[in-house]
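During the second year of the project, the team shifted from modelling isolated chains to modelling whole assemblies. The rationale, set out in the original proposal, was that interfaces cannot be judged from single-chain predictions alone. As a representative example for this report, we include one of the complexes processed in the last quarter. Its constituent sequences, exactly as entered into the pipeline, are reproduced here:
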Amino acid sequence: MIAISQQEPEAPEVAAPRGIWKVSVSPHVKSDESVAKIMWTVVACLVPPLILSVFIFGIQTLIITAISVASCVGVEYVTQKSLGRKVTIGDGSAVITGILIAFIIPPGVNYLLPVLGAVMAIYIGKHLLGGIGYNIFNPALLARAFLMATFPVAMTSAWLPPLQDLAIFSYLGTSIDAVATATPLAVLKTQGMAAFTQQFGAAPNVYTNFFLGWRPGCIGETSGLFILLGGCYLLYRRYITWHIPVTVLGAIALLSWIFGGSGYFAGDPLLAVLSGGALLGAFFMANDYVTCPTGRKAQLIYGLGVGALTVLIRLKGGYPEGICYAILLMNPVSSVLDNWLKPERFAPVQGGA
Amino acid sequence: MPTLLTFPKGGVHPPEAKGLTAGLAIETMPLPAELELVLGQHIGAPCSPTVTRKDEVTEGQVVGTVTKGLGVPLHAPAAGTVSALGVSAHPMRVTTPSITIKTNREIAPVQYSRQEWQGLNREELLQRVQNGGVIGVGGAGFPSHVKLSPPPNNPIDTLILNGAECEPYITADHRQMVEKSAEIVEGAQVILKILGISNCQIGIENNKPDAIAAMTEAAAKLSTPQAQVTVRPMQVKYPQGSEKQLIQAVTGRKVPGLALPSAVGVVVHNVSTARAIYDAVVLGKPLYEKVMTISGKGIARPANLLVKVGTRVSDIVAHLGGVTPQLAKIVMGGPMMGFAISTLDIPVTKTTSSVLFLAEDEIDTSEHSQCIRCGWCIEACPMGLEPKEVGIYVEAGRAQDTGQFGVFECFECGCCAYVCPAKRPLVQFVRLAKMKAKR
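Output from the structure prediction step:
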C-alpha cells in the first residue's frame, strides 16, 4: 500500500469534516482468505493423523513431532532475524514443515534427527533460496532426503510394529533394535508376496489394517483414512484441487497394477496406494503450492510424473518406497511445465509482447 | 427462469453489499452553492471554456467545447455566475482545469418536454447525442456519438445494454432500471435507429430481480419489430460489466486482442448512458446530472442521489448528514476498480457512479507478503493472464520484461488482488509494469 501525500487545493470552507483517510490502488476490498488461514487449516488437517500415530506407535511420535515443529519454528525465527527479514513464524508454514518432517521419518529414530531435518528444511531448503514462495524443493522432503543420506540405518530400520493394546508408553526407554520390524513395502520388495501375506495378512484384512493405519511405517503416513479425511476437507475448502492427488494416486495404482505383480496386470493397485507414503504425499506434499505447477494442465502432467517415478523407484530402485524422491525429482520440473503450458489468454494482443 | 448467462473464464464474487442502498428510491440532491466543472470529463481532448469569469450562465448552457479532437460540449448544470476558471482536485490527475459556477438558487429549474425524434435521420440523432454532451457514463467516459459511429467495414447486428452493475455497493444503475425503465428502453431504441439495427439485449445480473422485472415489462410494452429489446438475466459474477466479458456472456462472441466490440458486430452502452441518450434526444436535455450511489458504513445516511455534475463530495457529505467516526477510506467508483481520494474537495464528474465511504472493517489494509504461488490469481483472471508472474518480475526490478505476460491485455479489474491470500497489490504491480514494459 502506497500512501500519497497531496497538497489540498484552496477551497472554500465546507461543513464536512476533514481527516486523514487511507489511499491505495484498487481493489479496496479483498477476500478474507490469507496465507496464515490456509497454513493453519492444513495444520489442523494434519492433527488427526498425528493423534492417531500416538495410538499406533506410542507417545514418542508426539515427542518427535513436537521437537520437529519447535526446531522448524526456531530455525525460521533465527534465520529471518539474522538475515534482517521480517519474522513470519506466525503464518504457520514452518509448523506444517515441522509436522511433515516428523510424519515422514520412522517412529523409532533418535530425537536429534528431526532437529537436523529442520535445519536442512528451513535454513537451506527454504530461506537460503529466498523464503516462502521461492523454494524449489519441498522443504520437508528435502529434510527426509538429507536424513536418508546421513542416517541411512536409522531412516530405514527404526520401524516399530503397531501397538496392539494402546500401551502408548511401552516403547519409551526400550531399545529400538529389540523391537524393530520392517515396513510392508520393504518386506514385499525383499522377501516377496508370500512373506508379506504371512506377516501382514491377506486381503481384505490387510486393506482394512492399512487403511486404518495399523502397520509399520513413518509416523504420519500409515492412516489412509485420516489422511483422506484431511485431504477431502482441503478439497472442500478449495485450498487444493483434485488434479495432483488424483493423478499421483491414479498413476501409482495403474502402473502398480500393470507392473507390480509377478506378471503383467497382476499387481495390487489398492495395496500400492495404501502403503508407503502415497496418500500423504499425494494430498499434502506433491501439491504444495510453492513447489508444484500452478496451471491445471501442468498439474496433471506433474501428478502423472510423480506417480510414475514413485512406481519406478518402488519396483526398480534401491528403496522400497519412492514418493519422496519422485516429488523431489518433479519439483524443479514445475516451472518448466508452467512455462510450457501457459493459461489460454482471453484476447492475446497480436504482435504484442 | 431462463438459464443465466455468464462468461466462462475467471471472475470472483465479492460480498455484494448492495443492501445498504438497493431499496432506496433515487433522491434529488438540493442545488449546492458552487459547482466545479472539470474540463476533461471524458476520454479524448478536454474542453476549452467558452465563458469567462463573472459571466452569467443559464441551466443547460454550453460552457465548454472541444475545439479539436474527439469530444463533446460541457453544459452548465444550473443557472448562476462563473466565479473562477481555475483548477480542481482530481482523483487521478491530482489537479485539473475547471470552471467554477456560483449557482443562483432563485432561478427555477428548466422543465424539459418530450420532442418528436422518430422522424429524425441518423445524422440528426447523432448530432443531438453529441450536442447533449453524452459520454459513456458507466465509467469509461468515451464520447457516445463516436461509439455510435462504428467503422463501416464491421457490420453491427447487436446492441448490448450493460445493466450488470457487477461492482459491490453500487446501485445507481439498478435504481434507474427500476424507476426509469421506459426511458432506458426508449434510449435503446434511439441507439438502434442510429445503428440501423433492430436487436437490443439488456444484460442484468440476477441479484436485481426488481430491475429485471421492470425492464422486461418496459421492453415488452415498447418493443417494435424495428426495435426489439430483450432482457437477458445473468449470473452474479464480477467483472461481468466489463465489455469483453459482457459480450461473451450475452452473445458468446469473443472480442479479440485490442479490437473494439464492433469487430464482432456488437456495440455496448451502459443502461445509464441509454438514459442519458434518451434525455439528450427525446427531451433535449444535456447530460449535466448523474445518479450516483453514496454508500458504505462511513456515511451517516447512504443514498442513491441525483447529483449535478460538478457537485463537490463535501457537499454530498453535508447533505447526507456527515461521515461516521468509523470512516477509513473514501473511494470514487466501485470498491474493485475505484480510486481512493484523500480530500472531500473533489467534484463529481459525468462518469462518477458512486462515492463510497468505507469503514475499517469494509476495506483491507493487511500487509502483503511473498507470493506463495497458489495460482488463485490465475484462476481468477478473466483475461487468462498470470498476475503472480507480473508481481514477481516487478518486485525483482524487471518490470520492463513483463510484456510476455500480456500486461497490456489487463484491464485492472482487480480479481487477482481480491483473491490473493498473500494480499499482494497485484493491480499496482501491473500498473507499474505497464509503465515500464515495452509494447
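DSSP finds twelve helices and 17 strands in chain B. Chain B touches chain A through 87 residues (CB under 8 Å).
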